Amino acid sequence: MRRKLVAGNWKMHGGIAQNRELLAAIVAGTKTVQDADFAVCVPYPYLFQAQSLLRDTSIQWGAQNVSQHEKGAYTGEVSTAMLLDFGCRYAIIGHSERRALYGENDDTVALKFAAALQAGLTPILCLGETLDQREANVTEQVVARQLDAVIESVGIAALSRAVLAYEPVWAIGTGRTATPGQAQEVHAFLRGRIAAHDAGVAAPVKILYGGSVKADNAAELFAMPDIDGGLVGGASLVADEFIAICRAAGAGSR
Ligand code: 13P
Predict the structure, then answer these.
(1) Does 226 contact ligand 1 (Cβ within 6 A)?
(2) Cα–Cα dist 37/183, whole Å
(3) Which end of the chain is less congested by CB atoms within 10 angstroms, N or C?
(4) Residue-wise pLDDT tens for the chain (254 aa)?
(5) Beta strands in the chain (DSSP E)
(6) CATH says 4-252 is which class?
(7) One of 129, 167, 187, 241 is an active-site residue; which one?
């Protein structure tokens, strides 16, 4: 049985006052949901606030990116040690927006993944195909390439300390969700690919789905055998939506 995880990815949204309200509502709204884990991945400047407001709650927090370098002359970058200073548990690695807009390739992603793991953070490794790639029927090749780059770099056993997130690019922020069947197919493929290396790593590894997860589609997605929760963008900024998604995960935990 894999315990479900719902993680909010706030992206570049938030503000001190609105975060306070949102986090208080999430803490209150998830208090009675016990059979799943919840987290928020906030912009760097709000990590201190997340730590202050969440430290005595069951909600964990993390960042949306991290440098692959330990320290040094890397203007604008943030290290794994800095994330640990603010109590982060998670770091999202290789989000498609970072791959598409900030030039992160499979090699950079593998380095960031390794750095996060080495520091004791739990990387949430994002994988997913574009619409063109889906229409060209190369979804499996694309996610396999993205996954293999990390496995080749850190070894298969490292995945047992990580979380994967399948995020089809065409479903992100578009309101167009993969059907539960479409998502399940890719999740099963990813788990199978890991199992080909090591079945003992594949069985417990959490694979989240991300891409327009909302209160009204979460339950059917989470009912799929290989979907272990969600990485939620837009809906994680709306307390009632996010709480409902968290409740769907709690109810659906196997
Ligand atoms: P949306 O939920 O807004 O589609 O974003 C998904 C995502 O990118 C989470 O990382």
Answers:
(1) no
(2) 21
(3) N
(4) 799 999 999 999 999 999 999 999 999 999 999 899 999 999 999 999 999 999 999 999 999 999 999 999 999 999 999 999 999 999 999 999 999 999 999 999 999 999 999 999 999 999 999 999 999 999 999 999 999 999 999 999 999 999 999 999 999 988 888 899 999 999 999 999 999 999 999 999 999 999 999 999 999 999 999 999 999 999 999 999 999 999 999 974 43
(5) 4-9, 36-41, 59-63, 90-93, 122-127, 163-166, 206-210, 229-232
(6) alpha beta
(7) 167
The atom of ligand 1 lying closest to the CA of 165 is 10
How far lies 152's CA from each of 29, 146, 239, 250, in Å? 41, 10, 39, 34
Determine phi and psi for 212, rounding to 5 degrees: 55, 40
End-to-end CA distance of the chain: 5
